[in-house]
Amino acid sequence: MIITLNGRKVEVQPGQTIWNAARANGVNIPSLCASPNLKPYGSCRLCLCEVDGQRGYPASCTTPVRDGMVVRTDSAKLNQLRRNVIELYLSEQPEGSLQLREYAAQFGLQRVRYRQPKKRAYKVDASNPFFAFDPNKCIACARCVRACDEVQGTFAISMFGRGFESSVAAGNDVGFAASNCVSCGACVKECPTDALFEKAVAEFGKPDYTTRTTCAYCGVGCNFDVGVRAGRIVTMRPVDASPVNWGHACVKGRFGWDYVYSEERLKKPIKRVGDKWVEIAWDEAFTMIIDAFQRAKEKHGPDAVAAVSSSRGTNEENYLMQKFMRCAVGSNNVDNCARVCHSATVSGMMEVFGTWAATNSLNDLEQTKLLMLIGANPTEGHPVTGARIKRAIRRGAKLIVVDPRRIELCRYATLHLQLKPGTNVALFNGLANVVVTEGLTDKKFIAERTENYDAWWEVIRKYTPEHVAGITGVPADKIREAARLYATSGASMCAHGLGMTEHKYGSYGIMALCNLAILTGNVGRPGTGINPLRGQNNVQGSCDVGSMPVYFNAYQKLDDPAVRQKFEVVTGKPLPQKKGWKTPQMWDAALAGDLRVMWIMGYDVAQTDPNLLKVRAALDKLDFLVVSDLFFNETCKHADLVLPAASFVEKDGTFTNGERRVQRVHKVIEPMHGIIPDAEQIFRVSAGLGYPMKYANISEVMDEIAKLTPTMAGVAYDKLDDHFGLQWPVPTREHQGTGIMHTDRFPRGKAKFSPAEYLPPGEVPTDDYPFTLVTGRVLHHYNCGAQTRNSKLIEFVNRDVLEMHAEDATELGIADGETVNVTSARATIQLPCVISERVIPGQLFTTFHFPDNDLNTLLSSSADALSSCPEYKVLTVRVAKLPAKKRAPAKLRARVLV
Amino acid sequence: MLEKCVASPPNILATLQAVQAAFGYVPLDTVPAIAAKLGVTDSDVRGVLSFYHDLRTEKPGKHVIRFCLGDSCRATHCENSLAAIEKKLGCELGETSPDGKFTLEKVYCLGNCALSPNMMIGEEIYPRLTPKSATAALEKHK
User: Fold this and answer.
1) What would the pLDDT profile of A141-153 be if each residue is shown by its tens digit?
2) pTM score above 0.90
3) β strands within A311-434, DSSP E
4) Radius of gyration of chain A from Cα atoms?
5) Could you list the residue range(s) of the whole structural domain that residue A510 is in?
6) Which pLDDT belongs to residue A721?
7) B38 to chain A: nearest residue by CA?
8) Can you tell me the distance from the alpha carbon of A509 to that of A501, in angstroms, rounded to the nearest whole number?
9) Is the ipTM of this complex over 0.90?
């Protein structure tokens, strides 16, 4: 479609507004209320234009383009109208914001003719730790309100009052902090007059320049422009054009970077001398590690050494750590923290598809007709995806939530299957049973693209809805309804979190889910597939680059001669063949005296691994433990040497998000306190052990990864910078990446129906331990909390709390907020108890962000049989009251999103 | 009570009107309960509540006077009657009389301009007001 814009013929899209079309053609029509991220609204009256054949001066932001339209956006008359509009705004706020003053100058406004009836003297709402609202600067354009509604879907703010009095207020006019606002910052980003402003920008000034990078919190992998003023980060703004977050963010990514400047950060290497910690020089620290590793190798062999790298680290760091272990030390004893989250996803998907990653992209949420969300709470764990799911629902997609808890998204769900924890396998077998018995299968897909159907059905036939209802507690009619919805929507997508994997039979749950997808042909098409929501920023990548004890990069087998040869050409060293220990096995080995020396990087095992008493005993048994981290974490307490690490803004590299997108991490500032970044630490120790690694810069590490990793063969830094990353498989240098996998064939050829029988979880409630406790995360904190506890995020939530149903609390005589004893077969801990609608009677929920609770001492070592992924999600406990004076927790701040 | 007030299908304005009909006003601290019942957020409800002048958030007197300040009533000197009422009640526009009997509110047109000046007490309209007739009208509402 062609229109004439200011005398120039330009191409526009049907349905576009004049304002957006002009913007796309490089003409910025003055405006305050319009935003490319929001629906047309038309309140500020600045964007008026002239259209041939149309009376008056239509607002360009609400007027759609027509073919052949002749539009002028600049004329003396328009300038006068705009001047008058700005004059009216300034009549209410004579000082005006920067934007208003700029427009006043642009339109030639000399003075305001109106006398002020009364002066604005509203109170600034500075209750939120990260941003504030100054109503005196508000022009009531409602961009913030629309952003909260349309982009974030939280509806926390509204226009209050009318006329001169209209302004924005949060919740029941209680201020931002006390309202249901989730501090995503969408409103702040949209505000055209700085009425909503970031406190850090107000304190340190607007940025001089920005550097683009990838967020280091969850596996969504949002793109941000990091604003720097005089060498200091002052803001992180989400990137509008990003295909991952489309200009949106969550509180952690947008504001929770302030831990970088925390005084609590480790600054110098410290070594243990008796019961004291002594600062030492970096050189001395490296010598200590080299000596300890050398000694252990000589005395006990290379397999007495192990390393654990971090899914919070870059691909390059993870790659280097495994290369160091395999080449410099000579052992496969290297693992990363993906072991305790999505390892079961890998083993389950490997079995059915022959692959280990999300089949589709986040953008498929725009196309799906039905989303089945299992064991995930995206509005807290993956908030940008959570907001996107809400948008998909408003667009008309259906939602089935499978979760023991009534999470926030249940409000929008067509169905909520509230199953008993640990009964996933039975439920998905039950759904498959209904699909088959009601004739809803995709026969063509099954015939052409799958195998082993008959053997599978022999197992599944007994999982009738009634039988499954008995196991799961989900009524049979709901199971039938869910199966029908999933099988018949036309495009059904599954997204799952750790509620699928962290079970004794987690891998089998994944298989049961994948079976359901291939049974109904919901793989290999837009808006379908099996999509794990990765917990940490680089869970995907840390495994892709081989930081695993039983595989090389991209799950290539250790004992495949062709693979070994390919690696040895690059590494110049024969690689160890013996399988290494997975993290939980490392603890057994340490306790048995087989493992002597460890290097743990960016992973707080002494807080987040299960059965903590055992983990800590294992750590204490080691001859030498070195920990690299941003903060002095729980694991450091067991170390001999602690190295400070560089944060994500202090180094170059890549993260791979949950949709397989390899994205650049750009160094924004020099490492604080002269810290030597993790990769350099590995180089120094490796060289000391006689295996120097030679790279001119970090991009060459990625070139080497590409050479050894078939799925990432075409990945290189210059290509990543051109695009917003690349989604693997990227088989060649020319390849543009793969949004949807398995469109024609599966990596293993045909998908294999993999029968999985339901078996009860490791623990079932008994008279002694009548409650089932599920653990998870909250919005304002991230896993072990090292980053978020050292951020102002702590002002939102400062404790883990135990969520309990009101009926149980009444029965036990427990008051809201009262501290209680929680006892498992292993240990007893204390937690403040909060009455919650999210759990059903008999079930409890808590988070694992704060180390002082020692939550994971409660857990056993029970883990998934195939992947060793710990059974975090089913734990039986009893709850008891404390003596009266111990019941009140100190200054409890907590929020339960419902 | 709230159960009865929730409009079907859920509608914020109709619900707030029902709450006001039942209580005479919408207490601000009921907003979260109303929002929860309607499945919307506090700010949605509070936004609507703050927009309509007819919705009150403070307990009114026994009778509500809606005194018209529209153009037609102004042109026929309604201010004389208003002054008489204010004097009689001992309160100004927007306030409630000290004895709690009357709340005096302004409106901008009652749609009865042919018979200006006008006011309403409760649901009853009093046209062609004079200071005398206006104060006399108060006497009828005890």
Assistant:
1) 999 999 999 999 9
2) yes
3) 334-336, 370-374, 398-402, 415-417
4) 29
5) 343-532
6) 86
7) A411
8) 7
9) no
